[in-house]
Amino acid sequence: MHHAGMFDVVFLAMFALCFVIRAPIEVRNKRLRAVESRVGVFEKFCLLLVFTGSTTLPMLYLFTPWFDFADYAVDPGAGGTGTALAVLGLFLFWKSHRDLGRQFSPTLELKEAHHLVAEGVYARIRHPMYTALFLIAGAQLLLIGNAVVGPAFLLAFGILYASRIEHEEDMMLDHFGQAYADYKARTNRLLPFFRQ
Fold it and tell me: Has residue 153 been placed in a domain?
């Protein structure tokens, strides 16, 4: 491995655990028929950006010298904060997948027998998985000592989130009607203590 700093190892562990949490659920849920999909060209482009920022660039950073020109030493305080964000983000990532179960889809679609999940972590936050991904993207920013690769996931995910969130909530309103309107009225988007 080209880079082998302590915080690079923390990043790799976080990356691997994200895959372990999501992959089995994604494989299982692929078998379920989508009853509604709102995946357009821009959504696909944003998903490609997120994959590039969260996977392709970090792997190139870790295993090739291509991004060496933008390297810097990670401050221990920043790395420690990044590690804490990774732990918190991974817990929320696992919990939101577990609570969502068969309702999970990485794209803007609803699966057959889809029901509104308003229990567990979803009782207080409408989009805890996005919160988890913002925490994980923030962890990458702090753990990877590279001016290009560090912020890549956060930037890409910020674009995806901003372009998707209103469409996602509109789709849920169209599908679940008043039940979602009531749910929306009593919850926050990303943080339980901050009204959005």
Answer: yes
Determine the 3-state secondary structure of 151 from DSSP.
Answer: coil
User: In this predicted model, what pLDDT tens digit does every residue of 81-104 receive, in sequence order?
Assistant: 999 999 999 999 999 999 987 777
* pLDDT for the residue numbered 100: 86
Contacts of 121 (CB under 8 A, 6+ apart): 92, 95, 96, 99, 128
Question: Averaged over 93-118, what is the pLDDT?
Answer: 80
For range 10-22, the mean pLDDT: 96
Q: In sequence order, which residues have a C-beta less than 8 Å from that of residue 95 and are 6 or more positions away? A: 120, 121, 128
* Alpha carbons within 13 A on the beta-carbon side of 133: 23
Supply the DSSP symbol for 188: B
Q: Is residue 75 situated within a structural domain?
A: yes
**Residues 78, 135 contacting (CB under 8 angstroms):** no
Query: Could you give the maximum distance between any two Cα atoms of the chain, in Å?
Result: 54
Domain extent for 82: 6-29+39-109+116-186
How far apart are alpha carbons 107 and 44 in whole angstroms? 9
Please indicate, yes or no, if residue 1 is contained in any of the structural domains. Answer: no
Q: Is residue 57 part of a domain?
A: yes
What total of structural domains would you count in the chain?
A: 1
For residues 67 and 146, give the distance between their C-alpha atoms in angstroms, rounded to a whole number: 8
Q: What's the CATH number where 94 sits?
A: 1.20.120.1630
In DSSP terms, 111 is beta-bridged to 34
